[in-house]
Design a protein that fits this description.
Elements: E1 12-16, E2 20-25, E3 29-35, E4 38-42, E5 48-53, H1 55-58, E6 68-71, E7 74-75, E8 78-79, H2 82-95, E9 106-111, H3 117-131, E10 134-139, H4 140-147, E11 158-163, E12 168-174, E13 177-184, H5 188-203, E14 205-206, H6 209-219, E15 232-239, E16 245-251, H7 252-258, H8 260-276, H9 279-288, E17 290-293, H10 302-310, E18 314-316, H11 323-331, H12 335-341
Helix pairs in contact: 2-3, 4-11, 5-6, 8-10
Length: 343
């Protein structure tokens, strides 16, 4: 287990996620949590400058005039636009006062467990150029397990399922190493798209991704609970038949039907992981259960559905939204272990 040391430091941990970027400053905790979105204004002679980043940039999605481009520099947990990711990260570091640090710190940044060498290099170079410090990479499931307080150094299997915006990662950890890990590119964004497609198909109504996300968070559920009350929400979009704005109400059972396919893909990945692991580790996990992290782990009754499919106890981490960031930060407290678990 990890102990929090009290020595002053400016070392930082970064969860560079598809939907959100979180920065953990040692001895202070999480000091930044912003959407991974960048808005750039095109200037003369091809010059570009940052117009907004984070939440302010996210609010501009689909609403900008000509000359301002809003983008998400990460897709499925990895950098898809290096220049934008570098600029966004540099902007966030400036916001936390990084430029005033007397000495350049150690930086630990999380990446998916199945990251390619090119994607790994892109993440490391983006952090190096933005922060100009010593950079370590850590697999996201390992960081999530540390942040969730799992006993990763013990000779026993711990299973973590990190379900973020662009990626679901299923990992089994023992003796400070990842024994098994698989990634599926089905997570929060695919669930949002499933809601968009369902409403378009059933009602000929086109809604935006942010509306779909609001529907998912407000009335979405993965499994019907006992005597569950049906909830509804009003949504607005464009009627595809006549091209004019329209509002309607949809119900929680409709949303559950809409997202069934991506949810089943996530549960299938977990079931396959349990089938493929060594019997000794499987026995440990039956005793200790599966721990869920990431924003989608908060989807109503998802833990109940996974428990029903796997017949294994399922627990949601106490800090599902911040587990990866906190794990990167806690890893900085144990330099020897950091070097052992870093990629």
């Amino acid at each position: 287990m990890f102990s929090i040391l009290s020595t002053p430091s400016k070392d930082i941990g970064i969860d560079l996620g598809t939907a959100n970027t979180l920065i953990y400053l040692k001895n202070r905790g999480i000091v930044l949590n912003e959407p991974s979105v960048l808005a750039v204004r095109n200037g003369t002679r091809g010059l570009k400058r940052i117009f907004a980043a984070g939440g302010k940039a996210k609010d501009m999605l689909g609403k900008t005039p000509e000359g301002i481009n809003v983008s998400r520099p990460l897709q499925h947990g990895v950098i898809s636009d290096f220049e934008s990711a570098q600029s966004m990260l540099k902007h966030f570091l400036t916001e936390i006062g990084y430029s005033s640090f007397a000495a350049k710190p150690k930086i630990i940044i999380s990446v998916p467990c199945d990251v390619t060498p090119i994607e790994k290099r892109a993440a490391k170079e983006a952090a190096e150029s933005a922060g100009k410090g010593e950079v370590y990479l850590i697999e996201e499931p390992m960081a999530a397990a540390i942040g969730a307080g799992l006993p990763i150094t013990e000779p026993a299997g711990s299973m973590i399922v990190d379900i973020g915006s662009g990626l679901t990662e299923v990992a089994v950890i023992s003796l400070s190493g990842i024994v098994y890990c698989s990634s599926v590119r089905i997570a929060g964004e695919e669930i949002d798209k499933a809601i968009v497609n369902y409403i378009r198909r059933k009602y000929n109504l086109l809604i935006g991704d942010q509306t779909a996300e609001r529907v998912k968070i407000t009335i979405g559920s993965a499994h019907s609970g006992v005597d569950e009350e049906t909830k509804t929400i009003e949504i607005s979009g464009m009627n595809l038949m006549d091209g004019i704005p329209q509002s309607l109400r949809i119900s929680s059972p409709e949303v559950r039907e809409a997202i069934a396919e991506p949810i089943n893909s996530i549960t299938d990945a977990i079931r396959i992981a349990l089938e493929r692991m060594p019997p000794e580790l499987a026995s440990d996990i039956v005793d200790t259960g599966i721990v869920l992290s990431g924003g989608v782990s908060l989807l109503k009754n998802l833990d109940l559905l996974i428990e029903k499919v796997t017949q294994v106890p399922v627990h949601v981490a106490d800090n599902p939204m911040t587990a990866v960031a906190e794990g990167t930060g806690r890893a900085l407290d144990e330099l020897a272990l950091l070097k052992e678990i870093s990629m």
